[in-house]
Amino acid sequence: MYHKEKSIQIKNSASALYNNLGVLRIAPRRLTYFTVVHANVVNMVSASWDGLNYSHRQLQSKEPNVATSTSLIMQAAFCALPSRDLLVVTSQKGIQMYESDGSIMVYWHALDTPETPTAQAVFARGISAVWENYICVGVSSGAIFVFDIPSKGSNITLSEVLEEHKESITDMASECSGSQECIADLVSADDGGNLCVWKSGEEFQLLNKIPGFDMSCSSVKLWKGTVVAGYGTGQIRLYEAVTGILHAEVNAHARWIYSLDIAPFSGLLLSAAEDSLVRVWHLTLTPETNSVEVAHLHNECVTDTQICGAKFCDGDGYAFAVTGYDLSEIIRYTQS
Fold first, then answer.
1. Which of 167-181, 205-219, 268-282, 296-310 shows the lowest mean pLDDT across its residues?
2. Is the pLDDT of residue 167 over 80?
């Protein structure tokens, strides 16, 4: 179903972080941007669709009053809003927002770091664009920062802090189907596997809490009112977002899941884990019977590689890309 394409080389290898791959498709320019985090650097590659042109850029983690920061970056993710695309980078010191090509930093938000080191690490992780003008970012305290993003310029404001989670945020996702009927439009996950389902707006409303079972939820997606969550057990669970009803549980991988992605137009689900496998599933929702079916379509083994990032390169799931710990390349697969 899929075959391997030519890999894209990156300047540094990928760190072993959840969801360590960002992909942004720039259709008018026939380009795709990729980001991969290595320690305190974000490797960025702009690749032309014909595979002939590649340009590289590296973004350093920032902190006030320091020329070169050594603070580790936890995640880099593209946030596509109707009016603009931004690249959001989270680290142990704060949250950086860049224009999507990485050329200009438009906003910096420092995290409150204690004067004396504590047992609790401080970092930001979990990034999602929500609705028309919000970007939500999770932090290690369990709080979620909601930023209001203007259609242009750098007048970004922190509009709300959501304090529902008690453990570090691992990942966040907004409703990706584009459907207006869905009540829930954001799901957040934490290190204890707990999920919170939100409705965005001037004030975000908590719609539902789905309890975890003391196993970290490393990656989460929201599609047509269904939460898809991947866990350290290698399992994928599908819940109805608003009620928390468990629709399906899949023993998808033998090891810790690091990344999930959904192609919103086709209902394809991508899962990648420490067991060297990337699997493609197909989700079918039947509203009449309120049921969800999961079918396994394809798997690829990236030999001797702990996979840490996997993303579809388009809304149909025609192609996907994969990164692995200590691998200095982005591996791509396309449908045959």
1. 167-181
2. yes
- The tokens describing 103, both together, are 């050329």
Is residue 76 a contact partner of residue 88, using CB atoms and an 8 Å limit? yes
Q: Write down the domain spans for the chain.
A: 2-112+120-335
Q: Which residue has the tokens 């909601």?
A: 146
Pick from 183, 182, 190, 233: which is nearest to 210 by CA? 190
Q: Which of 81, 96, 34, 61 is nearest to 328 (CA)?
A: 34
Distance CA 82, CA 58 (A): 26
Residues 227, 221 contacting (CB under 8 angstroms): yes
In tens, the pLDDT along 131-165 reads 999 999 999 999 999 999 999 999 999 999 999 99
Distance CA 43, CA 20 (A): 11
Tokens of 330: 């982005």
Question: 145 with 166: CB under 8 angstroms?
Answer: no
Query: Residue 206's closest CA among 267, 162, 262?
Result: 162
> Please, which pLDDT band fits residue 105 given cuts at 50, 70 and 90?
very high
Can you name the residues that pair with 161 across neighbouring β-strands? Answer: 145
Rounded distance between C-alpha atoms, residue 91 and residue 69, angstroms: 10
Report whether 277 contacts 300 (CB < 8 A). yes
The arithmetic mean of pLDDT across residues 259-268, rounded, is: 97
Distance CA 177, CA 224 (A): 6
Q: Report the CATH fold assignment for 2-112+120-335.
A: Methylamine Dehydrogenase; Chain H (2.130.10)
Q: Is the pLDDT of residue 62 over 90?
A: no
143-148, strands of its sheet edge to edge: 124-130, 134-139, 143-148, 157-163
